[in-house]
TrEMBL record:
This is Winged helix-turn-helix domain-containing protein. Residues 126-135 have a biased composition (Basic and acidic residues). Residues 115-135 are annotated as: Disordered. It comes from Mesotoga infera.
Length: 135
């Protein structure tokens, strides 16, 4: 990307862009003029209009851009983690529902078994009595 393209993309005058890029390179804040520099150059007039020197504006614009990029990356990571946790939560809710259904079925079977054992308990005792008498 050249100064003319950067000027057109940023909406800032050619001479101003050339001056900004010169400072950015001299300060070691950028190595080359590329797409990333557009956002940095766009922020610099805000700082210079507030009384900062071009050098100070350059440093602030680069730090702000780096901070914005890292915050955006962190936000994306957190959104991915949230989506993953929501999927896991849905899976666990399904499993819990299945387990609750199984427990309810087992309770019904147990109640059915307990109601039938009242009639059969006498038989069990009778068998015990028979075993004891036979021994």
């Amino acid at each position: 990307m050249n100064f003319k393209e950067l000027s057109e993309a940023s909406g800032i005058k050619y001479e101003t862009v050339r001056n900004y890029v010169k400072v950015l390179i001299e300060e070691g804040l950028i190595d080359e003029v590329n797409e990333d520099v557009i956002q940095i150059v766009k922020k610099m007039p805000d700082y210079t209009s507030k009384g900062f020197t071009v050098v100070e504006a350059a440093h602030r614009a680069v730090v702000l851009e780096d901070t914005h990029t890292s915050v955006t990356e962190e936000l994306t990571e957190l959104q991915d983690k949230i989506a993953s946790l929501q999927e896991e939560n849905q899976r666990l809710e399904r499993e819990l529902g299945e387990e609750k259904a199984t427990v309810a079925e087992l309770k019904e079977r147990l109640e059915s078994f307990e109601s039938n054992t009242e009639n059969s308990s006498a038989i069990a005792v009778y068998k015990e009595d028979v075993k004891t008498a036979a021994d």
